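Researcher: For the record, we're logging two predictions in this thread. I'll number them. Prediction 1 follows.
Model: Prediction 1, sequence and structure:
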Amino acid sequence: ERERERERERERGATMADSWLWLATIVVLFAVAASIDDKCAACNAVAEELERGLANEKPRNHLDLRNRLDSKGQRQGKVIDYRVSELRVVELLDGLCEKMQDYTLLKTASETQEWIRIQNWDNLTINKQEAKAHSKHISSYCGSWRS
């Protein structure tokens, strides 16, 4: 009975840690947008890239962290659902800054600015030098908070 209670407490602690981890991730992503000229558009571009990462994600098994044996020979530890694991967050954020190099700031018809993903830099009709500068700006800022 006591062992079950301890296990429930560990699970509650893991759930709370997962919640804090996701909250921290969101705060960091908003920090990326904070130093960019058009914050909403930059935030949308980062969110778009994260959504692309989620859509391309392969299904994964639970993470089995049961690597100890108790006195009865039973494995001790936790099995964590990959969807709420720290590993998933790390893998989603890994390479995010490099992927942001594919984005540049573009003025739309309504004179607002929007971060767009460039498929082919050679076919770009706007000033390529300026577009590359915008691309480096968002990517280098992204790298500054990841370090």
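Researcher: Logged. Prediction 2.
Model: Prediction 2, sequence and structure:
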Amino acid sequence: MESCNSLRGNEYSISGEIVENAQHDPNVGKFVFLRVDTGDQAISPDLPQSIGIMVPNSVKGPNLETKQNYTFVVDVKKEGSLVASSYTAR
């Protein structure tokens, strides 16, 4: 895939472990980095090992903790950013 253009405007489910709680703004939400669970599929070392997800304050769920596993439903926004619409602990 050359760019995020083919992904934007769609919704996806992503599972993995939170490796970093990068930012928290009480007025906006929390930005986390997730190491995606790929199962038995190998990932090229040239690809990012984690992805950033914005979790707006309006999205309710369990506390987001590092080293814990979650499944996120995300929307791919115009600029390619991932914004959670829901999430659950795994």
